[in-house]
Design brief:
This protein is α/β, with parallel strands linked by helices and 295 residues long. It contains six helices and twelve strands. The longest helix has 19 residues, at 253-271. It is a single-pass membrane protein. Residues 117-289 form the Trichome birefringence-like C-terminal domain.
Length: 295
């Protein structure tokens, strides 16, 4: 019998993002519980040591106490952390509902080498995030992470006290009693992709506002953008690149990616207040789908 597949890396990074919000990197359960239940009315939570580098270049040189990216998967019979029948999961990622017979793949837990992560507690997380907006921005992998985070917390909220709203390319889960929203904004390339003459798709390497206008006023922004930049040939999402008034048909994808991320980073530095918003950029994850090559 084949060994159950371990969770994909994007699930780990989701936990890292959550850990960054609630200071799990200290790896001290007593501090975690005491700090997390305190209700904060100001922005002091932004300045707590968490080992996460801001996009802004203002860094104070603090050393990270625990590298959560270095560790191993361990089987934990107390997992999973949420029911696979969570109603907020997309039909394409609900393995159990799609007929997968085994369930051991849900029981893998990430264990860093240098510390032990406290078990996620939805109520304490919501208390920490009271009156705050959390937004995940990116592609379908980030949509998966949004679904997972919502599923992690929704079970402790009464049915009548949670709702989902939609606005343009964004969706938001609202925990009404906590005045907290967990949001997702579809922007797989971060910069703008528009329709040009003859219905051609144009990727603007130096324009971002049409996407970024949805990111303002958020307390925690988690970004990702990678896979769509690697698409080529029939999988490509654009016909031309455009920078200023110059249009190109061919650019090295990594050069284009760098230009796009530079536009994004400039927007972050010029438009976000470090005293109000925490910014996290995730690294690249494995694909979460399979391509079938029919012979």
């Amino acid at each position: 019998m084949a060994e159950p597949m371990k969770p994909k890396l994007f699930s780990v990074i989701l936990f890292f993002c959550i850990a960054g919000l609630v200071r799990l990197e200290r790896c001290e359960s007593s501090h975690f519980v005491n700090d997390l239940v305190e209700e904060e009315e100001d922005s002091s939570w932004l300045h707590e040591a968490d080992g996460v580098d801001m996009v802004q270049t203002r860094r104070d040189g603090r050393k990270q106490s625990c590298d959560m990216s270095t560790g191993k998967w361990v089987l934990d019979e107390s997992y999973p952390l949420y029911d696979s029948n969570c109603p907020y999961l997309s039909s394409t990622v609900t393995c159990q509902r799609n007929g997968r017979p085994d369930s051991d793949y849900q029981k893998w837990r990430w264990k860093p080498h240098a510390c032990s992560l406290p078990r996620f507690d939805a109520l304490k997380f919501l208390a920490k995030m009271r009156r705050k907006r959390i937004m995940l921005v990116g592609d379908s992998i980030m949509r998966n992470q949004w679904e997972s985070l919502v599923c992690l917390v929704q079970g402790v909220i009464p049915t009548g006290r949670k709702t989902v709203s939609y606005s343009g390319p964004t969706m938001a889960f609202h925990a009404m009693d906590f005045e907290t929203s967990i949001e997702f904004s579809w922007a797989p390339l971060l910069v703008e992709l528009t329709k040009g003459p003859q219905n051609k798709r144009v990727l603007h390497l130096d324009l971002i506002e049409e996407n970024a206008k949805y990111w303002r006023g958020v307390d925690v922004l988690v970004f990702d953008s990678a896979h769509w930049w690697t698409h080529s040939d029939k999988w490509s999402s654009w016909d031309y690149y455009m920078e200023g008034r110059s249009m190109f048909t061919n650019i090295n994808p990594m050069v284009a990616y760098e230009k796009g991320l530079t536009t994004w980073a400039k927007w972050v530095d010029l438009n976000l207040d470090l005293r109000r918003t925490r910014v996290i950029f995730r690294s690249m994850s494995p694909r979460h789908n399979r391509y079938l090559h029919l012979l």
